[in-house]
Amino acid sequence: MKKKGSQEPSRRQQKVNSFLQQRISEIIIAGNFFGITGLVTISRVEVSPDLRESNVWFTSFNQDPEEVLAILKKEVFEIQGELYKGSTMRIVPRIHFVIDHSLEYNDQITKVLRKVKDE
Question: Does the keyword section mention Kinase (predicted)?
């Protein structure tokens, strides 16, 4: 049983998160969106408890993340439409793209640790 006030997602949320992560990745790969020249990876998805909204974190390699974010925001309606087509859910969450800075943060921590080790 879940504790009151717990931030852990429900089993349903976890399933929807996983479905959205996989499906959005497939859509981006197949979509050939004009302007995306680098590799884009969907790193994580978090859906709201009512399953109506979702944040989709992505990383990009060999392309500026801000540039990719602008393209994804421009193409969000096409991506959303593809989600509706490939889903049996009654409500497909609205997606909001967010740049995932965790890799940059991990790189900074690694550099600091190596510097401390070398000293």
Answer: no
